[in-house]
Amino acid sequence: MTRGVENRRLSSLSLLGAALLILPALTTLSSCTVRRATPGVDQDLAEFIRENYDKEEVRISMRDGAHLYTAIYSPKDRSQSYPILMRRTPYSVSPYGEGSYPAILGPSDLLTRQGFIFVLQDVRGTYMSEGTFVNMTPHLAEKTGPEDVDESTDTYDTIEWLLANVANHNGKVGAWGISYPGFYAAASMVDAHPALKAVSPQAPIADWWYDDFHHHGAFFLPHAFRFFSSFGVPRPEPTTRRNPNFEFRTPDGYEFYLGIGPLEMVNELYFNHDIPFWDSMLVHPNYDDFWQSRNILPHMNKVAPAVMTVGGWFDAEDLYGPLQIYRSVEERNPDVFNALVMGPWRHGGWAREAGDSLGYVQFGSETAQFYRENIEAVFFNHFLKDEGEMSLPEAYVFETGGNRWRTFSQWPPAEAEERALFPQGEGGLSFDPGSGSGEAFDEWVSDPHRPVPFTPDIATGMTREYMVDDQRFASRRPDVMVYQTEPLE
After folding, report:
1. 482 pairs with which residues across the strands?
2. pLDDT, position 388
3. In the chain, fewer beta carbons within 10 Å around the N or the C end?
4. Residue 225 in contact with residue 269, Cβ under 8 Å?
5. What spatial distance separates the first Cα and last Cα of the chain, rounded to whole Å?
6. What is the helix (H) or strand (E) element at residue 326, kind and residue range?
7. CA distance 335 to 251
């Protein structure tokens, strides 16, 4: 559909190029100024943790000899046994030191107060853990010796050690994680330890060609640059220190990235080839073995634990992952308990916020609080503590617009019908493909020196409200095609 200026040199604004904008009629969202809320520390919860949990720091040996730093928080009340609830992360399990406690332990303040043995672990090669860190560790389907390790084996070895060395557990283990830790939760389900009974991958990365940095193959420069400029800096030795964030020295990301020019200039101006995964992304621009090997979806076989995958409809980072992990588990493991929860949330918004709004869009209730109390707590308490009947449906999905929770016995719903929309002449959009020779076209000039921004806000990365931004601000540009339906019934 595109004719005009062609520039074969790779532009650094890969996802900010020429755009096609499809608008249903009666769109009522308004362009708005970003509102940012920084949730404060719940001092009462922090005090509760200190008063009710003992902390132990250990280094657990893996089958290849690497030791992974692990913090264990056990209830001081020894009158009953508790399940183990584990999160493995590349983002640090700080604070370090046996006298230092975090502000929250579990997936929610509710579960933190309900009593579990919480286990937090720095994954291989990050922070205080030994070994070599590999982004989205490829799963090894065949393992012939102790040197063959992946996230499945590291989780298995960790659980084996915990069962033998942690007192007062009930023999059941659960796992959860949000975003990158969601990937580690998903990987734990493959060739799982028999004691692993419940897993909740939340906004999990499944395949980086579709999540985060490559949105279905389109390179999302602002997100990738911000993330790897800090996270991608190697840590050759164990450390408790985080790498500093990149200093943009301007609030205007649009002008910042334009000033870089082609992608190869990122190293010349800023990274100096000191970030290995950035360089790997540049030499693997297509969906080759490098990316395919980091796809966890083909390995969701013989999943034994109960699974509850969680995602947000307005998650600009990992929307593909939760839907596809649910689907893969469902197709490959038809007899396992496998539930999907999708709410009206930004990335991770279900874990800490009320969930009653995003930007100026209102959802009519505290959807995240509802999820934590009536979905997440029910899942973990049932499968790890044998408390309550399992009343959760196959799919718990929030319907935006109607502002209501819907439940379904399968996903997609049996009554759902997939339909295609077709561009028409004079900017029309219809479910009817129409008639004609098929040779009609619309055209625009795509100029890499003046790319189309993806947000009306001035920012150096993705704002929380980006996914609910009114995109009509861009429709006034001559390099944006706009197609609109008649009013939808």
Report:
1. 21
2. 87
3. C
4. no
5. 29
6. helix 320-332
7. 51
